[in-house]
From TrEMBL:
Signal peptide: none annotated. GO terms for molecular function: DNA binding. It comes from the Bacteria. One of its GO terms (biological process) is regulation of DNA-templated transcription. It comes from Serratia proteamaculans (strain 568). InterPro entries: Sig_transdc_resp-reg_C-effctor, WH-like_DNA-bd_sf. This is Putative transcriptional regulator, CadC.
Amino acid sequence: MNCHFNNTVIFENNVMSLINNRLTLKASGKKVVLSNNQKKLFICLLNEVNDKNHIIERIWAGKNSKSKENNYTQLIFQTKTLLARCGFPEDTIITMPKYGVCLNMNLLKPAPTDENQKAELLSDQGMFIYDIRS
């Protein structure tokens, strides 16, 4: 899949939007301003470019190999920290050991709006209705 970096990036669904460098979770109203490389990372993840080496090449093409590796590690750490500090779920970006990272795809799914779409959980204590939106 191709990963394009334009001056104006727009991704939007019912749950999340990425407009320029501003990432927004619509349900909670949480917003964060991303650096250019963080924006590039999100574009890669939205385009399902998850492999560490592919992400590195798309963001830092033409730079020294060792610095690319260090830059990647710092970018992932700083992005996760920024998102958590701004109230985004801690698992917005999921690390896949020895492979790369991925976006938590549950964040891209619209929350159920109908009571019938709630998941029902059974236990030995009886039946409970669990709202999967929480």
